[in-house]
Amino acid sequence: MKKDFELIGIVGCGKMGRIYRKVFDPLSDRFVIVDPRGADDPDLRPYATLGDVPGDLFHRVQVWCICTPTEKHFESLETILSRNPRARVIVEKPACLSFEVHFFQALLKKYREARVLINRQYADSRAVREMVNALRRYDVAHIDLIRIEFSKDRRPDIDTGRFVDSHFGVLGYEWSHILTIIQQLLGEDDWATYCDLSPELQATFDDVQFVSELEERSVLPSGTTIRLRSSMLGRYEFPSFVPYDQLICHRYIEVRAGTLRFRLQLEPRDETRFTGRLFENHFRIEDGGDVLHDSTIMDPFLPRFLQLTLNQLFQPDCRPIDWTTLDRIISTRTAIRRHDDQNNLVTPIRTGSGTGLD
User: Fold this and answer.
1) Which end of the chain is less packed: N or C, by CB atoms within 10 Å?
2) Are residues 168 and 285 in the same domain?
3) Residue 6: which residues within 8 A CB-CB, separation 6 or more?
């Protein structure tokens, strides 16, 4: 059976690069792998650099996926577009380092026929959309509290060779996913207001990873409290449907409105990823102590996003990159870095490994 794509290029064959290739395997006949460490499949011939890929082969690649460490994203994109100004490219998040954003944007203006999108896998999530729709169904006029935690013990992955994001620290792993979800829960106007707020932050600093844990607390003018948390150390703070000792990772979303409590736990047992089984997500609505709704939502976030993105890249009205999440991450990093450099441990930055902001 003929597949949709003859050739897809994967730049960076680490953990994310291998995941991308597994997702795309049913869609493409062949892959071009670019990684100085080689490929994970002996049947694939890897190239050490993008410059090593022969010109005729390079121009036959229909979509490039940049899955390198963040510090190599912009360099890889610049090389791809210089060799093929009309290239279609998916870039793993975050798009680039904080000081490269303007260069990245200038590059896109230079190569206007190219199409580039960033991984925003939760922007098209059925599970998150179900939570947003439930808020409407229950006529929620005011949200009292939103809290989201995306945490995982990343030390085993790092010990086996996964890159360390020393520029963004914990902000460079799943914070952009957290912000993408917040963006959907708040809506356009409140999202813009949120992005202008200066939050309280509690950070655990790390000599290698910059910041290994971070918790944020913000309050909108409307009174909605937002609490966000992420840890690379496997320390979970917010509630869970699944016992903590059974969790592979902890991706938890909660919205409170009066006595109503909307809770969503995303893929708590993600060892089933990419084995033919869709992601399981648990969604529950409670009123006081009563459970009004309890369901499992099957939603393969990343495969769905990548397939939608492949389609988008070849549309004349391909959506532009939304920079607001990365801008927010950069402003948060700047605030943390400023206090870290000055060793100034006062509000709004509070450092330490405590149990969170009150």
Assistant:
1) N
2) yes
3) 28, 29, 30, 60, 62
| Geometric angle at alpha carbon 69, from 68 and 71, rounded to 5° | 115
| Region of poorest pLDDT, from 146-150, 184-188, 274-278 | 274-278
- Give the angle 274-25-174 at the CA atoms, nearest 5°: 50
Amino acid at 63: V
Q: Tell me, what amino acid is at 237?
A: E
Q: Pairing state of beta strands 200-206 and 225-231?
A: unpaired
Q: Does any domain span residue 24? A: yes
What is the token pair recorded at 328?
């927010």
Lookup: tokens for 293: 């709704």
Listed in sequence order, the DSSP H helices in the chain are 15-24, 55-60, 73-83, 101-110, 126-137, 155-159, 175-186, 188-195, 301-313, 324-342
Residue 216's nearest CA partner among 249, 187, 244, 175 is: 175
- Which DSSP string corresponds to 5-24? EEEEEEE--SHHHHHHHHHH
Q: Are 290 and 207 in a shared domain? A: yes
Cα 174 to chain centroid distance, Å, stands at: 5
Query: In this structure, are 89 and 100 located in the same domain?
Result: yes
Domain range for 221: 122-300
Q: Which two tokens stand for residue 2?
A: 């003929």
When computed from its CA atoms, the radius of gyration of the chain, rounded to whole angstroms, is: 21
Look at residue 318 and tell me if it is in a domain: no
pTM above 0.70, yes or no: yes
The pLDDT of residue 224: 98
Whether the bond between 36 and the residue before it is cis, its omega within 30 degrees of 0, is: no
